């Protein structure tokens, strides 16, 4: 990845503890970025961040509910406190309604899906955007 360097940049990756998110965390770290592994499960984000640090790269784990603006503001503040900036936000966290078929999805479940997949992208973008504007 020598042609693609993110050295000196800091990336927050929501949903970074498993699957595609974990792969993105590894890729950003390999490209030289400081990475913040953000998700709800403390044990999984700790393990992901530890794997990155074991490779000599910078990573921290911060638990967050992306639908909670206060928790997301805390995520941004801790990121900046640790690394001095927030340069990249990857909104990877998301979900689908258990094993429901669309036509059988309860309305409350649908509202939870929309809250996480739409509001849960907007809130981190809003918080990260405020920080990035400050950094200009």
Describe it.
α3 runs parallel beside α4 (107-135). Strands 3-2-1-4 form a 4-stranded parallel sheet, with helices on both faces. The longest helix is centred in the last third of the chain and has 29 residues, at 107-135. The chain has 4 helices and 4 strands. It is α/β, with parallel strands linked by helices. It is globular and about 50 Å long. 33% of the residues are buried. The chain has a single domain, classed as NAD(P)-binding Rossmann-like Domain (Rossmann fold), CATH 3.40.50.720.
CATH class: Alpha Beta
The helix tally amounts to 4
Strand order of the largest sheet: 3-2-1-4
Beta-strand content: 5-15%
| CATH superfamily caption | NAD(P)-binding Rossmann-like Domain
Largest sheet: 4 strands, parallel
Query: What is the average per-residue confidence, as pLDDT, rounded to a whole number?
Result: 95
Q: In terms of structural class, how would the helical and strand content be classed?
A: alpha/beta
Helix content: 40-55%
Helices and strands, in N-to-C order?
EHEHEHEH
The coarse silhouette is: globular
CATH architecture classification: 3-Layer(aba) Sandwich
Rg over CA atoms, rounded to whole Å, is: 15 Å
Briefly characterize the structure:
The chain is 51% helix and 15% strand.
Write the layout of secondary structure elements.
Blueprint: E1 10-14, H1 19-30, E2 34-39, H2 42-54, E3 59-63, H3 69-83, E4 88-91, H4 107-135
Parallel strand pairs: 1-2, 1-4, 2-3
Helix pairs in contact: 3-4
Which structural traits does this protein have?
136 residues, Rossmann fold, 4 helices, four-stranded parallel sheet
